[in-house]
Design goal:
heterodimer; A: about 280 residues; nine-stranded mixed beta sheet; 13 strands; B: about 425 residues; alpha/beta; FAD/NAD(P)-binding domain; D-Amino Acid Oxidase, Chain A, domain 2; 3 domains; seven-stranded mixed beta sheet; 14 helices
Chain lengths: ~280, ~425
């Protein structure tokens, strides 16, 4: 089977600093990493490949330096890496990104082998939108399985996959037809280190680099800044809350009662609402 | 095990490892370089000064794209007591030359660049991979390495050990002893972030000009050690280091020393308002010539810090590292091109080449200096700096005392502190060790 894993190179959020004067994020010199959520997707994809055979292609869109992340994915054990890089892609929001990635997945399908599953992380740590995966899925007209916590089984002949999906109420067990797109939940596995042979292969591998044209993008106006309706209105650092914790002296009352009394004193409306609510019972 | 064989495996991607891997790859050998850090430079700590001449021999046009900070136009030597410094400063417009001689650099950036040159030359560079053991054959010849990756054994004709000062691999394989506490210094360092203009104003420089301050005296609390302040583009690197054996003996902590150095009235104004960007600690080989271990054997050579190649007197290390790496590679290439095996006898060529270079010549020159400074550390790092400071203050202070009387007072102080025989003895011993 052929699996594509979409990854993103992101700034290491643990090492981001805010400029003391301008209050903007200092991206310069901040080390980059593979979006941590994507690693769960990559590992799950490789496990699936190891189980049923086939290959894993990692795909990213980004500046030429994003090659570092792809090479790292190869070190972990991916079979092929494709970098979508073109100045036309610069400044893309989730809409434009998913447009370009979908084109690249189609191209990968045509060039190497038909794609059965696309894996992505559940979201990135820099954008936090969780929109690109579903966006790619919709454009490819694949079936969509988000927040997947476990791949239960895959039937390549019957062209179905069974997964567990975390939802607010509990765990759903879903069966879907292939091809599909899976966004993988965090904490589901731990990415492997890659063997010595993987590392050697990765050091020697050529990362495939595609421009918009190479990737078969049809409408260039849907890429990059031009294809991005999202507007960043303002970036600001949140001001820390000024409220301070108060010390409540129970003064002989039971501590819980004292606390509630104090809270109601500060929020009279809350008290009224609570009474109103209690009357119903 | 990996089926594929390499001509050479280089362990480590610091200055010496990169020099060796680059030279070997340029000479057409099949090279595998293994580095434990996330990228070349991620684990490497140095002041750091780059010596252009030794790098030019490896990358002639490095100035075109290497991440350099400032070229040095001024060197300041400071003898310090707790409140003063006596300085010898040398600054020359000659250093504003087309191809400057020394630069400040930031190793994490520089080593990445250096490593990219190694890759371009054709070597395979594996990061995030630790060599845990050397593989020897039945006759004790080193034939490869074992890494911490799955199926991590790789074989090669020769292994270049550029593993750094601790040299765990070589020690584990009984190629040499562990460095002794009185042969290594522990240095701590901080990077202070300041606006470019502030640095230029405080150090009296413009453009890409840079300044080095090297300081010794009471800042090391009677231990054998030195402090430094280097001006980078938008940061100041500052640190202090002393012999590990002295730290053991005195119970001083490196952290306290650094705090005191930073708060010294001569240093504090240089750093005022700065933001600490990074801190690091590292061992520095300081044993000199007498501490150099076996440099070669059947199937292996050792280069750089792991071979204790560091000139403590001149604060030079990276240039010795680069040179030893390059010479080891050249020797390996010569043996290889004669189609000779990588035996101890054949690899002796490396030692011969190193002996003929400035590396061993310089270390030999100062071979007695480490022992002298170590045994006399109280005198050289406490007593004399205080005497020098008192003498200079006495000299410059105008207070109505006749000059002759002032000179007498100073002389009395020196004799009282060290006695005539002590003074002559120290001068004689120092001159002899310097020779």
């Amino acid at each position: 089977m052929h699996i594509v894993v979409c990854i993103k190179q992101v700034p290491d959020s643990a090492q981001i600093r805010v400029h003391p004067v301008t209050n903007t994020i200092m991206r310069q010199g901040v080390p980059t990493i593979i979006n941590p959520y994507d690693l769960f997707a990559l590992e799950e994809a490789m496990r699936l490949r190891d189980k049923v055979g086939g290959e894993v292609t990692v795909l990213t869109m980004g500046p030429p330096s994003a090659e570092d992340s792809l090479r790292k994915a190869l070190t972990f054990g991916a079979d092929r890496a494709v970098l979508l890089t073109d100045r036309f892609f610069a400044g893309a929001d989730t809409l434009a990104t998913s447009y370009a990635l979908a084109a690249a997945v189609r191209k990968i399908s045509n060039t190497y082998a038909p794609v059965d599953v696309v894996f992505t992380g559940k979201q990135t740590i820099d954008g936090d939108t969780a929109q690109v995966g579903p966006g790619v899925c919709k454009r490819l007209n694949f079936l969509q399985l988000t927040y997947v916590s476990k791949i239960v089984s895959i039937d390549l002949e019957g062209r179905t996959i069974e997964v567990e999906r975390r939802s607010e109420g509990g765990v759903q067990v879903l069966r879907s037809a292939l091809p599909c797109l899976i966004t993988m939940l965090e904490g589901t596995n731990e990415v492997r280190r890659g063997s010595m042979q993987n590392a050697l292969n990765a050091a020697r591998a050529t990362v495939v680099k595609w421009s918009a044209q190479d990737a078969g993008v049809e409408d260039i106006t849907k890429c990059g800044l031009r294809g991005s309706p999202t507007v960043v209105k303002r970036v600001f650092a949140p001001t820390p809350r000024a409220e301070k914790a108060a010390l409540v002296d129970p003064a002989g009352r039971p501590p819980a009662d004292a606390l509630i009394e104090e809270i109601f004193k500060l929020r009279p409306k809350l008290e009224a609402d609570m009474f109103e609510l209690a009357r119903g019972y | 095990m990996i089926e594929e064989r390499f001509d050479a495996i280089v362990v480590g991607a610091g200055m010496s490892g990169n020099a060796a891997a680059l030279t070997l790859a340029k000479r057409g050998l099949k090279v595998l370089q293994i580095e434990r850090g996330e990228y070349a430079g991620s684990k490497n700590v140095q002041g750091a000064i780059l010596y252009a001449d030794m790098l030019e021999k490896l990358v002639p046009n490095f100035r075109e794209d290497a991440p350099l900070e400032r070229h040095l136009v001024e060197q300041r030597f400071w003898i310090m007591d707790n409140k003063s410094h006596t300085g010898l400063h040398y600054r020359s417009e000659d250093f504003n030359e087309e191809r400057p001689n020394r630069y400040t650099i930031i190793r994490s950036q520089f080593d990445r660049w250096f490593s990219s040159k190694v890759r371009e030359a054709g070597a395979i560079v594996l990061c995030e991979t630790t060599v845990t053991e050397l593989v020897k054959d039945a006759y004790g010849k080193v034939i490869g390495v074992i890494t911490d990756r799955q199926d991590g054994e790789v074989h090669a004709d020769v292994v270049v050990l550029a593993e750094g000062v601790n040299g765990l691999l070589g020690t584990r394989a009984d190629l040499r002893e562990r460095p002794k506490p009185d042969n290594v210094a522990l240095a701590v360092k901080e990077m202070h972030f300041l606006p470019r203009e502030t640095i230029e104003a405080r150090f009296n420089i413009k453009g890409d000009e840079g300044v080095v301050i090297e300081a010794a005296g009471t800042i090391s609390a009677g231990m054998t050690g030195m402090g430094f302040v280097y001006a980078n583009k938008e940061s100041v690197s500052l640190g202090i280091g002393c012999l590990v054996s002295d730290f053991q003996k005195t119970g001083e902590t490196p952290y306290d020393l650094l705090e005191r150095f930073k708060n010294h009235p001569s240093v504090a104004p240089l750093l005022e308002g700065s933001e600490v960007k990074e801190y690091a600690a590292h061992l520095i080989p300081e044993g000199g010539y007498n501490a150099i271990p076996n440099l070669y054997g059947d199937g292996w050579v050792v280069v750089g810090d792991a071979a204790q190649l560091n000139n403590a007197m001149h604060r030079e290390g990276s240039n010795l590292a680069m040179t030893s790496g390059r010479l080891a590679a050249e020797a390996i290439f010569q043996v290889k091109s004669r189609r000779d095996p990588m035996t101890k006898e054949n690899l002796e060529l490396y030692k011969k080449m190193l002996d003929d270079s400035f590396v061993i010549k310089d270390l030999k020159k100062y071979k007695d200096m480490p022992a002298l400074l170590h045994t006399q550390s109280q005198n050289f790092f406490l007593t004399y700096p205080q005497l020098v400071s008192k003498a200079l203050q006495n000299f410059v202070r105008v207070d109505g005392t006749p000059k002759k009387e002032k000179e007498k007072t100073t002389l009395k102080q020196w004799v009282a502190a060290r006695s005539w025989t002590g003074l002559f003895g120290d001068a004689f011993r120092f001159a002899r060790a310097w020779r």
